[in-house]
């Protein structure tokens, strides 16, 4: 990263970090994601720590988190012993799939609750049913969006195509 927050790329990375924190992710994870959106990679943990002015341990922890979320991919570089990461091809479907999994868990909990409500709290039934419909529709809409992103990814050339030949 450059030396000035006035640089548009540096500002973007910082803003991505702030937004990630607001969404419940670590700020460093957001900064990493922002950096990879712009630069793609591959980059070593040491390079990222120096560039983002963050400890290597924090970079490693957050890179693994983003790898689990499907945003980053770990890659091997010939002759190198340290880990390198790059921005994953079409991480958007994976991000949405993770979101759908969380929505489905909430929907499952609501579905398990319904039989018990009628005896214990009948006035809650319409609220729970409304929430169930909300989650059901949110899941359906996100699944359609996942399908759309996957179709788009199939029709576009790979962004990391030249570095994938290694």
Automatic annotation (TrEMBL):
Presence of keyword Transcription regulation: yes
Single Gene Ontology MF annotation: DNA-binding transcription factor activity
Pfam families assigned: MarR_2 (PF12802)
Keyword DNA-binding: yes
Keywords for the protein's UniProt record, in alphabetical order: DNA-binding, Transcription, Transcription regulation
HTH marR-type domain ranges (all copies): 24-78
Gene3D superfamilies linked: Winged helix-like DNA-binding domain superfamily/Winged helix DNA-binding domain
Protein name: MarR family transcriptional regulator
